[in-house]
Design a protein that fits this description.
heterodimer, A: alpha+beta, 2 domains, four-stranded antiparallel sheet, about 70% helix, about 10% strand, B: alpha/beta, six-stranded mixed sheet, binds adenosine-5'-triphosphate, binds magnesium ion
């Protein structure tokens, strides 16, 4: 068993030594394809993170004409809180509204001096459960509240969030299409590279089979070689995309995040890194299986 | 050891057949020449015996096993008991003599020390033990032929199939090589030797199977 393993490793190494150019070509292709893919995935992941960060404060504000009686208020709160989409209802009375307004104005807050708090309407701030943070849910809630004439006006701003989300969808679809395309391209090139190495060694393959090698015995080193190419390509892609991430993404996205005030730019988590390497290995394996099928017939 | 029943083989559908309705029985330990003009079907017959080709019709039994009904999974195991010397040697040019001869044993998963012992013995037997680490292209045609024979013999085959093993070698080399086949036969291996070489048959008369255009025209045992 140990003997066989050593022998197998020697065969793999010999194959690689015999065609270093082809090997590097295969590894390079996997590396380039996976780097581009990872780079795209990093953009999507980070922008998505950003979006979820922003959508946390999607909410509906219902303005009240008059400050309500505490009992009415309690009734309304219960009514709204019982809606399935709603996570929390906060009552903001006129004083609180004024206080917030003046903090928002900061150094200019003395402009408000002399104004009565009553000029600002009281309101109910309705925030949503995570799974309902969307325009649709907000509209549904507003439609139900509109039946009550006590609510004079609603604001659920952040229309741009919707547009942003559809942009994100586009990014995701575009990235997915590009990714599938790149993976197929890599598969094709890896397959053909292995086909070339098989072609270069067709005599050896023929002789092996003629002196009684089983098809598994003939194929195993090539499968291992394919997997090795894939793994090395993926490792290079990991390094490459980390470098790209450091140079471009981190700064670019960080400035975007700063504007929105929060969050952190992230690289692939360790399980995503493992997934990347697994993708490389699977790519190499499939590439060699496909080309071996044509070459080793027995 | 080898039995053929009504074996037909044609390479293309409507081309004339390379072998036509062939019936043969070759007992264990026999030494058989297969002769005939070029294109008679000698190589085809040998290819059928090591399953490089399948017959269109008929049955072939090797060592009691019907190889026409055998699944392709079993072909490697048939070949491990069959030594083959090819018309064009089929040596690996980027491997040394030693590695070439060790190849069939490595494939069978033999132990390292067993392999080196056996390979050395066999190369010594064919008189090439001084050139273990040379490459095939550094050898003469006759020496390459002997390497090919060593590779066929190193597995102690039940059957030795040799296709024109003395093709264009001079008579002295031919006789040397011939001794190797006789030696293998003396140790119990059934030998099938496809050849044009009348001189060899004259000097060492054995059963002769003559083919012409795929048909058996003579089966003569002296
Ligand atoms: N791979 C092949 N494809 C098509 N036809 C073939 C193939 N191999 C052999 N033939 C045909 O089969 C017939 C027998 O060929 P074979 O090689 O068995 O002859 P042979 O007796 O070995 O001849 P030689 O003495 O020249 O080696 C020939 O007519 C040849 O053209
Ligand atoms: Mg021939």
């Amino acid at each position: 068993m140990l003997d066989q393993t050593v022998y197998l490793c020697r065969r793999v190494l010999r194959n690689i030594r015999q065609s270093p150019v082809l090997c590097s070509a295969a590894i390079g292709t996997v590396a380039v394809a996976l780097t581009i893919l990872t780079f795209f995935a990093l953009i999507v992941v980070n922008v998505q993170l950003l979006a979820s960060h922003w959508s946390e404060d999607i909410q509906v504000v219902a303005y009240l004409d008059n400050a309500p009686q505490p009992t009415r208020l309690k009734e309304w709160r219960k009514l709204i809180e019982d809606m399935p989409e709603v996570a929390r209802v906060t009552y903001v009375d006129s004083e609180e509204a004024m206080r917030r307004f003046s903090t928002r104005l900061g150094p200019d807050s003395d402009l408000l001096e002399g104004f009565d708090a009553e000029i600002l309407p009281a309101s109910l701030e309705i925030s949503f459960k995570a799974e309902h943070r969307s325009r649709k849910a907000a509209e549904a809630v507003v439609a139900r509240l509109k039946q009550n004439p006590d609510f004079s006006e609603f604001s659920y701003g952040q229309d741009w969030l919707e547009r942003f989300e559809s942009f994100l969808d586009m990014l995701r679809i575009g990235g997915g299409v590009l990714g599938v395309f790149l993976l197929f391209a890599a598969l094709f090139i890896v397959g053909n590279t292995i086909k070339l190495t098989l072609y270069a060694r067709r005599d050896e393959l023929e002789i092996m089979s003629l002196v009684g090698a089983t098809s598994l015995f003939i194929k195993t080193p090539f499968l291992l070689e394919g997997a090795l190419h894939g793994a090395m390509g993926a490792l290079i892609a990991l390094g490459g995309s980390f470098a790209l991430f450091q140079i471009f993404l981190q700064r670019g996205l960080a400035s975007l995040l700063l504007v929105s005030g929060g969050g952190q730019v992230v690289f692939l988590a360790w399980h995503q890194q493992l997934l990347l390497i697994a993708t490389g290995i699977i790519l190499g394996l499939i590439g060699s299986i496909l080309s071996l099928r044509k070459f080793v017939r027995i | 050891m080898i039995q053929l029943y009504n074996v037909c083989k044609s390479y293309q559908k409507d081309s004339s057949s390379a072998l036509h309705n062939l019936n043969l029985k070759i007992p264990k330990g026999d030494f058989v020449y297969i002769t005939g003009p070029s294109g008679a079907g000698k190589s085809t017959l040998l290819k059928l015996l090591y399953c490089a080709e399948k017959p269109n019709r008929g049955q072939i039994l090797v060592n009691g096993q019907n190889i026409t009904r055998m699944g392709s999974r079993h072909i490697p195991y048939l070949r491990r008991r069959t030594g083959i010397v090819f018309q064009d040697f089929k040596l690996l040019e980027n491997r040394t003599l030693f590695e070439n001869v060790a190849f069939p044993l490595e494939i069978q998963g033999k132990k390292r020390y067993e392999i080196s012992n056996k390979v050395y013995q066999t190369l010594k037997h064919v008189g090439l033990h001084g050139k273990l680490h040379k490459y095939p292209l550094q050898l003469s045609g006759g020496e390459q032929q002997r390497v090919a024979i060593a590779r066929a013999l190193v597995i102690d085959p039940l059957i030795l199939l040799a296709d024109e093993p003395t093709g264009n070698l001079d008579i002295d080399v031919t006789l040397d090589i011939f001794d190797l086949f006789k030696g293998a036969n003396a140790r119990g291996t059934t030998v099938l030797l496809a050849t044009h070489n009348r001189e060899m048959i004259r000097r060492f008369p054995r059963r002769v199977i003559a083919l012409d255009q795929g048909k058996l025209v003579e089966d003569f045992t002296p």
